[in-house]
Amino acid sequence: MRARDSKQQHEPASSLVKPPRVSVILPVYNCRDHLREAVESILLQSLSDIELLVLNDGSTDDSIDQIKDISDPRMRVFSRENRGLIATLNEGVRLSRSHYIARMDADDIAYPTRLERQLAYLEQHPKCAICCTAVDRIDVEGKLLQREKLRRDTPIFPEDLVFGCPICHPTVMFNVGVIGRTRLFYDPEYKNAEDFELWCRLLRQYRGVKLAQPLLGYRIHEGSITSQFSGSQRSKGIQALLSQVFFKPNSQSLKQRLDIVYRTNLTSYGVIDFLSSNLYLLVYAMVHPELSFFRQSLSSIRMIRVRLLSIFKKQRVRA
Fold this sequence. Notes:
This is Glycosyltransferase. By secondary structure, the chain is an alpha/beta fold.
């Protein structure tokens, strides 16, 4: 690809007549080793009618130099001083022109049909607002570490977030027509948990789905965005958010929905009706580290289940 000059790289959106079908937001901060691979994985998608917004958040290395020679009118590069991830993502939302917005990280690899598959699903299910996918976890060299396995495309409910986050941020595609652009802005009050806050807020009003097919190589390394802050920082943000969003007094309908989700999680370990009368308190306790003995109890449940299954198998053999 031929290099583009600076003026072309920063071409304003108003000079492009027809909005693309999908806008891809790609924040960059010191990702020189993998940025080019990430960019090319988007530009080589089977869905070609896209725009790629590369947002350089004041990188101190030569990240942007790695893609200077890529001549593609669908890519626009914006460089400025460092403002942080939340400000960068919100800038991307403002700059996007499509009815569908996809996220991408500068160190991941989008598989060739990712955008096409997600767009097709959202167009076939016009009431669905959020579409994410399963991922392949890869190492620094791109070798497969672990494949996420789902039996089928799975709806995502807000109650699911109590037991963990099923959404991998860089796999997400939003239906702007359903949500509205202003509702897609990340809340700066939830630094290090801005994605989790967005999922909680949106899933309380809109439908979400996770596609079973892995459509992204999610790179695991020390420099990735999610590892640039401690687990305790993110945990505190999530705890505060769950307390605010979920655990409100006199919410019988919420307690009933949580009961269903919680029973589903427990029955996967072979446990039925475990403390269901105190479910509301138990779930609240599970997200607070000072009450972590509940987590230990669940670990014990897993061990008991394995032990019981072993005993049952021996009894069948004897019979």
